[in-house]
Design goal:
The chain is an alpha/beta fold. The chain is built from 13 helices and 20 strands. It is globular.
Length: 435
């Protein structure tokens, strides 16, 4: 069932603002947001022309076009910006997908069609690697850059409703797929422009296919069997019955415990790929576990398509001699990330320069002795404090700001910089680091 507890949100378009003419001291940049830190007002983006990762800043006075607030600037948002000589955006415009209203379908309408079992073909126009990591239930992989040469992916019935989606309101892939299907003679094609981000934001379930999962039974993926009394499960799964999740959730709600600090089996990484296993993908256990983990801010929680029934019938690897009692998980190392052990040694022995890019009020709650505080928003103005010799490790609260700082310093020519891509307080607590 897709009809579950929904987070109701309304998207309001900003009143268009008059664009400021580009002067000799300003330049226009175009990009796709890779990460954004609203507290520091810093954006890391990919330049589509140069294929380089770059950074810009914005202020409260930055004019917004096609957006109601800075919160509309999210990962994967495509934008155009006017920046001054200090690389500060004076204007940012989201590059929205433009389609006739009759060609667009919204989240609830699509969910209702699926709930009612109406015939609809759902095509995921994103790259295959992105589809594999999580997609809408029943969706088929139809990457738009390959669809024209693979029309056999589509149903034979040219009058059947086809719905393509991708990464959100600035993603051009679903309109591209729509155009290809129309040219091929399909008469009832729509784009779900809000896309996968809106689907997840409304807490509708996402699935992964068992064939993909079998190839990823490793320490970089978390598999949770949420059934009450399973006798066997997916190989490598740990058992966390949904009743236990509900009890924890209710208790933490009563205690008003911060959502961002809620963890399942001590899993700090809220971006970890978490796959939920139940008897069927639409069972109450699967849906309830998905909703709770999503509420706890696990961004990549998904449900195993077909559940344990399909997994067993297809003879995928199983374990029937007991479940692991502890979660074994390792985050894949991102470029520039430092190993936890190296950070811990630096914090305890002082054999590297640690730069804390959090804001002063955060630092006041506890910091590593000898670390240097340079807020991310000030980092490019205080380069003199960053040594060019010896290892330099940046950290923040959860890793995002430190990653941006790493990119900024790398662009400035620093080759001795790493960053902690983890929860600072979690690493401190787990390794008895004194603050």
């Amino acid at each position: 069932m897709l009809t579950t507890h929904r987070i109701i949100a309304s998207l309001l378009l900003a009143i268009p603002l008059v664009a400021t003419p580009i002067t000799a001291s300003a330049a226009e940049v175009t990009g796709k947001i890779q990460s954004i830190i609203h507290s520091s007002k810093v954006i890391q983006y990919l330049n589509p022309k140069t294929k380089e990762v770059q950074v810009l800043k914005y202020t409260d006075d930055t004019k917004l076009l096609e957006a109601s607030s800075f919160e509309d600037l999210t990962v994967n948002t495509k934008f155009k910006a006017v920046v001054n000589k200090d690389n500060v955006a004076t204007q940012i415009k989201r590059v929205l997908v433009k389609l006739p209203p009759e060609k667009v379908i919204d989240t609830d309408t699509l969910a209702d069609l699926m709930d009612e079992g109406k015939p609809v073909f759902i095509g995921d126009a994103r790259p295959l690697s992105v589809y594999n990591a999580g997609h809408l239930p029943t969706a088929k992989a139809t990457p738009s850059n390959q669809l024209k040469d693979n029309l056999d992916w589509l149903p034979n019935d040219k009058d059947m409703l086809l719905v393509f989606y991708c990464g959100g309101v600035t993603c051009p892939l679903s309109p591209a797929a729509l155009k290809i299907a129309n040219a091929a003679g399909y008469t009832n094609v729509k784009a779900y422009v809000d896309g996968f981000p809106a689907w997840k934001a409304d807490v509708y379930p996402a699935h992964v296919n068992p064939e993909w999962m079998e190839k990823n039974l490793d320490i970089h993926h978390v598999i949770l069997d949420v059934r009450e009394n399973p006798t066997s499960s997916v190989k490598g799964a740990v058992h966390v019955p949904v009743s236990q999740l509900v009890t924890m959730h209710d208790q933490w709600n009563a205690e008003k415990f911060a959502v961002g600090k809620r963890m399942v089996m001590g899993l700090r990484d809220k971006k970890a790929p978490v796959i939920i296993v139940a008897n069927m993908d639409d069972s109450d256990e699967a849906i309830e576990a998905f909703e709770i983990l999503t509420f706890w801010k696990y961004k990549n929680a998904v449900i195993l398509k077909g559940g344990m029934q399909e997994w067993t019938l297809a003879k995928h690897p199983v374990q029937d001699d007991g479940f692991p009692t502890e979660l074994v998980y390792e985050k894949k190392m991102a470029p520039g990330a430092v190993e936890e052990s190296v950070f811990v040694t630096a914090a305890k022995q002082g054999n590297a320069t640690i730069i804390d890019v959090r804001n002063p009020d955060e630092v006041a709650t506890g910091h590593i002795k000898g670390s240097i505080n340079i807020p991310l928003s000030e980092l490019d103005k205080q380069l003199a404090k960053v040594p060019k010799d010896g290892l330099v490790i940046l950290h923040c609260e959860a890793g995002a700001r430190a990653a941006l700082g790493y990119t900024l310093l790398s662009k400035k020519g620093y080759t001795n910089v790493k960053y902690l891509n983890d929860s600072f307080k979690g690493v401190v607590a787990d390794n008895d680091i004194e603050l």
